[in-house]
UniProtKB/TrEMBL annotation, chain A:
The keyword Lipoprotein applies. Keywords: Acetylation, Disulfide bond, Endosome, GTP-binding, Hydrolase, Lipoprotein, Membrane, Methylation, Nucleotide-binding, Prenylation. It is found in: Late endosome; Membrane. This is small monomeric GTPase. It is a lipid-anchor. InterPro entries: P-loop_NTPase (IPR027417), Rab27a/b (IPR041837), Small_GTP-bd (IPR005225), Small_GTPase (IPR001806), Small_GTPase_Rab (IPR050305).
From TrEMBL, chain B:
It is found in: Cell membrane. Keywords: Cell membrane, Exocytosis, Membrane, Repeat. CDD domains: C2A_SLP-1_2, C2B_SLP_1-2-3-4. Residues 679-801, 816-945 form the C2 domain. This is Synaptotagmin-like protein 2. Its main location: membrane. Residues 82-149, 266-319, 336-502 are annotated as: Disordered. It comes from Geotrypetes seraphini. PANTHER family: BITESIZE, ISOFORM I, SYNAPTOTAGMIN LIKE 2.
Amino acid sequence: MADGDYDYLLKFLALGDSAVGKTSFLYQYTDGKFSSKFITTVGIDFREKRVVYRANGPDGIVGRGQRIHLQLWDTAGQERFRSLTTAFFRDAMGFLLLFDLTNEQSFLNVRNWMSQLQMHAYCENPDIVLCGNKNDLDDQRVVKEEDAREFAEKYGIPYFETSAANGNNVSKAVETLLDLIMKRMERCVDKSWIAGGVIRSNGHSSTEHLEADKDKGKCSC
Amino acid sequence: MKTNTDTMLDLSFLTKEEYEQLVKVLQRDEELKKKDSDRIRRIQGSLRDEKKKKCITGEWFDDVKAQRFQEELQGSDLLRVSVRKKKNRTQNEKAEQVSDGEHGKHNPPPALPASSLEPSAVLPTDERSSETKDNNSSEEPETVPKLKVKLPALEMSVAAASAPSEKICSQNNISPADSGIGLSPFLSTSNSQLLEKGQEIISSSPPEFSEKDVGQPSHLVQEDLCKSTSNSAITNKYSHEETGPPCKIPVKSCARPKLDLVLGNFEQSNGDLSKTESQHGSGLSSPETENNAVFKQGSNYTISSMKDKPKSQEVIPGPDHFMSLKRFWEKGADLIGENGDAFGDPSPEPPKKPSSAESSRRYSLTRGRTLSIHSNKSQSEDEKSVPDVPYRTRHSHQRTVTFSSSEDELIYVASPRKSIPSLIPRSTYGKGKGLAATRSISIAECNGGHPRDEESKGQQRSSKKSKLPVRSPSIQLSNKTELPSPTKERPPDISVPTTPECTEECIVPEKVRRNADSLQNKVRILVDAVTSEDEKEQIADLTREPTFIVNGEEVQMEAPDYAEDANELSPVILALARAGVLNNARSMVNIYTSTETYNKPQTITHQLLEPERAKELSKSTPALVSETESDTASEVSFQLNKHRKTLSIGSHSSDMASVSSVSNSVLSVYSGDFGSVDAQGMVQFALDYDEKNREFQIYVAQCKDLAVVDEKKERSDPYVKTYLLPDKARMGKRKTSVKKRTLNPVYHEVLRYKIEKMVLLIQKLSLSVWHNDPLGRNSFLGEMEIDLASWDWSNRKLNWYALKPRSLSASSAVDHRGVMYLSIKYIPPGSLGMKNPPSGEVHIWVKDIKDLPQLRPSGVDSFVKCYVLPDTSKKSYQKTRVIKRDPNPVFNHTIVYDGFHTEDLKDACVELTVWDHEKLTNHFLGGIRLGLGTGYSYGIAVDWMDSTQEETASWQEMMLTPSEWIEGSLPLRSLAGRRKFK
C-alpha cells in the first residue's frame, strides 16, 4: 500500500463465537476469497483494506471521497484467548459481531458478546454491526431472521445476514459500520468539550460546562 | 503506578507456534502504526481545522477512549508486554540469542515494535509489573513488597524533587544520569566503570540500530501519543520511564562485559522507553487548553531528547537521521519559545530548552561540556557529529548531576515560603526523600533492565550485587540525616546522586516512579496556571544558577566538587547560600509549590495532622448532623464543627449511623468512652463464606469476661458489631442484638455480608464489642481484627479470640480517606490591570490525591466535585474527570470561579468532594471545605461552614496573599450536612 496515503485510519474488530466465520468474513471482505478450511485464529490477527468513503450529506450531496484505511482486527473466538482478545476491544472504533446462522448457541452468545463489548470497548455504546453469517447454508440454518432482527433492534444495531463464502452482504456490513463510525467521529469532534485541564467556568453562571459534563458522563459522542 | 500485574495477560497457555504467530501480528501492527504516525506527522502541520485534525489523527477516538481507559495500554501494547514477559520466563537461557536474532529481524521496522518484541526490552508498564512479577532477579524481591505499601512521603517528595513544569521532564531524564556522576565517594569507581563501559559500548555498538531507534521512534511515538488525549494517568505511568533509561545506561554499561549482545537489548529497551516517554510527554501537554499544541511540542521535546540520549551514546547516527532530528528539535525549540511568550512560562526550563536546541543545530563539540544542562538531544547530536569522541557525551550525562542539584534548590526555595514553620523540616525531609527517590528511580529502572540482562548474563549479576551493600546504605543514611534539621536540605540531594548509577535495588522503584509521574503532571498544570512575567524572570535566574555550575570547564570535575562542598558545608550555610538565590524566586514558589506540597502531605498528614485531628476529635462532640445516608454516600461527620462544640454529646451512639458509622464508633472512641473501660474478655465466633449465596457470614456465638461499664451496677449491655475494612462505607456494619446485664453474652447470631469473595479477601474484618447505652454513649469493650486475606477458610469452627483495646492506629486508619493536594489562589478584580480580571477570581487547582481508600478490588475510580457554597446550584458545580483505578489520582485540574468580591471570600466556602465513580452510583470518599469555618455564611448559620483548622488556614492565607498560589495538603474528611447531590 502506498504508505500513509489515506485520510483516516479506522480500526474495526470482528468478534463472536468460535467458528462463526470471523476470519473468513474478513478474508472475504479484504481479498474477496473464501477458504472452507478451518484454521482457528490464534489470539488476534488483523487484515487491512483501503476504501473510499463518501458521506451522504443530509442534503443528498455527496462529499469528496475520504480515503479510509481499515485495520480489521480478527479475534479468536475460543475461550482460552478471551483475556487476550478483550484487551483489544478498547482500541477498536467499531465492531462486527458475528454469529453463525447454523449454530443456535452462537446466536445466544451474542448477548454475552454485547456485554463484553460494553465492558471492554472504548465506550459503553460503541458502534456495532451484527452479522448472521453463513446464510448460504440455508438448509442448516437454525436461527430465524426475525429473532436476529428483533435482537438487533433491541440493541439498536444494524443487522445483516452475510455469507463469507459467497460474499453476500459482507461489504455492506462493513460499510455500514464504516458509515456509523464516520458519523460518530463527526459528532465527537463537533461536540468536543474541554476535558480536564483548565476549565474556565464563569463561576456562578456557567451551564455549558455542565452540559459538557453530562455528555462526558454518558461517554457517547 | 499500579500497573497492572493483574491486567497483564497470561500467555502461558500459548504454544510456541502460537506465540510466534502473535509476535508477527504485533509486528505488523507496529508497522501499521508507524506508517500511520508518519502520515499524521506529515499532515499535522498543514491542518488548520482542529476538528478535522482530530478526525484525521484519530484523536477523537483516543479522547473518548481515554475517558474509559485512561491509563490502560493499548491492547497490542499490552500483549506486547505480556509477550515479552513470557519470553523472559521461558527463554532466559536463550536470551542472548533471541535478542540477537530479534534484532536482525526487527531492526528494519520501526524501533518500537522491535523493542517491544525484544525480551530484554521492557515497556514502562511492563517494567513495573515485571518488577513485581518478573523478579527473576534476586535483586528485586525486597522492593516488591514495599511497592504495595504506600509511602506517601516518598512519593510526594519524589514528585517534589522533579522540577516543576516541563523542566521536570528533562530533569528527570537527566537526573538519573547525573546520579551516575556520583558525587559521593563512590563516584570515582562508578565513573571509571562508566568510562570503561562507555568505551566498550562505543566500539561494540552497532550503528545501524541507533539510527532507526533514535530518530523515528521518538517522532512517531510522540505524535501518536499527542493525538491521544493526554491523560494524566498515562503520564503518570510513564513518567518514571524517563528517569529509567538514563540510569539504565550507566548501569548496564558498568555491569556488562559482553556489550554486544547487551547493547542490542539495551537499545531496544530504550526504544520502548522512549516510546513511553514520548507518551508521557504528550500526557504532559495535555492540559486541554488552546495551548495544547504548543505545550505538547515543548514537552515532547524534552522527553524525546531523553530517549535519544541513551541511544545516542552507543550509536553513531547517520546523517539522515540526524537531519530529521535536528528539524524536529528546532521545531520544538521554536514552539517552546512561543510558549514562553504566551504563557509567561513558569517553568524554569524553557529558557534552557531553546538553547539546547540551538546547540544541537550547531553541532558544536564544545557543547559537550555544557551538555548536562541541555537536553540530551544535544548530547546525542554531539556524539553524532563527533563520533570519535564518545567519551565526552557519556561524561556529559554524568554531569547532569549539577542540573539536578539546581532542581533541588528550586524545591528548597519553596519551603521558606511556607507559612507553617513546623512543616518546613518535614517537607524538607520529604524532599530529601523525594530526591533520593528520584534517584532511586533510576536505580529501580536499572534493576528493571537488569533482570533480563542478568538472565542472559549471570556473571555480571554478582558484580552488581557486590555494589549493592555499599550504595544502598549511603542513600538511606542521607535521608535519615536530613530529617532532623530543616536547613539541611542540601545534603540529601547531594547524597542521593551517589546512588543513581549504582543501580541497586535498595530503593523502592515503584513508589519513586509514581512520584515522578505525579510530579510531571503537576508540573504541567503549573505551567498553565502560573503566568506572571516576574516569574519568568525569576525562573530565568534560577536556571542560570545551575547553568553556571555546568558551564565550568570541567563540568565533570565540578559536579563532584560541588557535591563534596555541599557535604562539607554545614547544612545551614548551604541553606543560606541557597536562600540568596531563592529569594528571587519568590514567585517561583508558586511553580514549585507543587513539589513542596507533595512532600508535605505525607509527613504532615500522617505525623502531624493525625494527632491533631485525633485531639480535635476527642474534644469534639461528634457533629452528628442528621445525616441520612444512602448506602453509598452517607457519612457522619465526626470532624469537629466549630460551632457545634457546645453541642451535647448525647446524640451520638454507635447505633445511629447506619452505614458509615465506623466513623461514629471511632468517634465515640475518641470522645471519651474509649479507654474508660479496659478491654478484656474474649469473643467466640466463626467465619464462613457461602459460595452459593456469595455471602460472608460471621457466626457470633458468645463473649465472656467482658469489661464492666457501669461499675455501680456491675453491668454491661454488650453487643457485637462488625465492619469490613476499609470498605466500611459500602458494606456497612452489622450488629448483633444487645444482651442486657451480662458480661458473658450469648448471641448465636449470624452477621452477613453480601460480598464477592474477591472483594472480601481484600478486607479486614473488624469485630468489636460495645456496651449499649441508650441514653448516653456506647462504650467500647474490645475488638479484634482479622485480615481476611490470610484467613483459613476451611476453618469454620468456632474459635475464641481475645478482645483487644482499640488501637489508635486502627481507628485512624479507618478514618483515613486520603489527602488532597491542591493550590488555591485569589485574584482580586483589576489586579492584572484595568478591569482584568473584571471580578475576583478564585482558582482552585486540584493537583492530586494520595491514598484514597479502595472500596473495590478493582481499585478506585475517583473524581472530584467542586461547589462554591452557598451556591449549590449546577452553576457552581464543577468536576474533574474520572481517574480510574488509582488510589493516588493526579487530576491537575484547575477550576476558576469568577464573580468574587473580596468580601465574598469570607462567606463562601469551596467544597471539594472526592467520589468513587461507579456506573450507577458514586460513592463519597471524602472531602474538604475551604472557607473560614465560621459556621455562618452571609449571616446565616450553615452547617457547611465547618472548615477544619487546616482548611481555614489555607483559605485565610489565600485571602491574605492575593494572586499567589497557596498550596495545601488537606486530609479528606467526612462532611457534615452534606447535601444530596449527584
